[in-house]
Write a structure and sequence with these properties.
Helix content is 30%, strand content 10%. It has one domain. The chain is of the alpha+beta class. It has a two-stranded antiparallel sheet. It has a two-stranded antiparallel ribbon with strand order 2-3.
Length: 93
């Protein structure tokens, strides 16, 4: 699931109560019950925020789609050219 805002990792203020990995007690968990793990939401590690009505999935503008399409066409044209020489071979003496 893509997120509207990804996980944000920040600077820790205090290792004792602001360490994301130290605060998770994983003893007693296995592959079968790992879904029950509760992960903290700390200032130094903000959890990702999923898309919703206020943060919708962005829709690319037509000109952005054209730019990406042109880039893909350029790559395809270079790789199918009968006279194509990779850049690595051009650099060799």
């Amino acid at each position: 699931m893509p997120f509207a805002i990804p996980m944000v990792w920040g600077e820790q203020k205090n290792h004792l109560d602001d360490c994301y990995f130290c605060l998770i007690d994983i003893t007693g968990f296995s592959a079968k019950n790992k879904h029950a793990l509760v992960y903290p939401d700390l200032d130094s590690a903000r959890r990702p925020i999923p898309h919703d009505i206020s943060l919708p999935i962005p829709i690319p503008k037509p000109q952005q789609i054209k730019i990406v399409s042109d880039m893909v066409e350029d790559v395809y044209a270079d790789s199918t050219d009968a006279n194509y020489v990779p850049e690595d071979e051009l650099l060799e003496p």
